[in-house]
Amino acid sequence: xxxxxxxxxxxxxxxxxxGECIGVVIEGMPAGVRISEKxxxxxxxxxxxSGIAGTKRWEKDEFEILSGIFRGKSTGAPIAVxxxxxxxxxxxxxxxxxxxRPGHADLAAMLKFHGFNDFRGGGIFSGRMTAALVxxxxxxxxxxxxxxxxxxxxxxxxxxxxxxxGEGRMLSEISNAKKNGDSVGGIVGCKxxxxxxGIGEPFFDSIESVLSHAMFSIPAVKGIEFGAGFKAAEMLGxxxxxxxxxxxxxxxTSTNNAGGILGGISNGMPVVFRVAIxxxxxxxxxxxxxxxxxxxxxxxxxxxxxxACIVPRAFPVVENLAxxxxxxxxxxxxxxxxx
Length: 339
Ligand SMILES: Cc1cc2nc3c(=O)[nH]c(=O)nc-3n(C[C@H](O)[C@H](O)[C@H](O)COP(=O)(O)O)c2cc1C
Prior knowledge:
alpha+beta, binds flavin mononucleotide, Chorismate synthase, AroC fold
């Protein structure tokens, strides 16, 4: 079992939701790259819960840099950053380890780790771990930015309400679900612009493979599509093929059904993908489960502090993880130097 992502630029994740801390070790960052603590702070604040959608667990996410950064720049040594868990209340989980929450990782974790895992707050399966992913992205961000590459994620829809219908409609999807003790999911879109052609490796390390692998590490992500995605299956070749054109002397395509990727490699158009996020499993309604100790069916009413919709918190995670993947792919392809 490894908790690592990346080939040349690597991150190693550690910690648990209700343990001492969560954190990340980043290896492969070339020496001399400016690392802005303000940027890390800003990215973390985008992920913090707020408004009607968020959990009442309020963590300030004050991070501590333990190694690898000196006078504001990377030293070439592994960069280690932690966030101590401060607002921990494990009471809602006490004595509940044999009562898996439907939709959460509890059941699979119990079957795999035989009860030795720290189940409090979801342990390693908690959304809290994504703060460490955001830190890794905020640190890696310098690499694509050196080449003027921008990575931007946004909420496309929540439940049945789309961005085009307005924020109000999306918010009411959340408040209606919450009023009924329920939760709701949504879609996050991400666009990577300014990526030069040739990034990504054919076959196993295609841009799609690398980004999908990373995105499915985010708890509650259930689908991903690139460009026209699943809609391409309904199109004719003549509709799906992006015409290759010359624009101001540059080779481009007239449409972007390919999502900026052909043969796993960037073709110079923006890389676009969408991620589907399921409704939060911990809902305030009676649900059926099995007591794994007594082997009896029971009802469960999940307590504890939970998000009603994680989409507003997940989109900065999607963005920062994409940044990290692109930085790694750029380093693999020699688009940026390594020590
Ligand atoms: C930022 C974020 C916050 C989350 N908050 C919660 C939460 O408050 N309650 C909950 O039950 N699940 C929450 N989740 C989702 C669970 O962690 C996830 O559904 C669970 O680990 C099972 O994994 P899976 O859905 O990928 O199968 C959160 C996920 C993310 C990304």
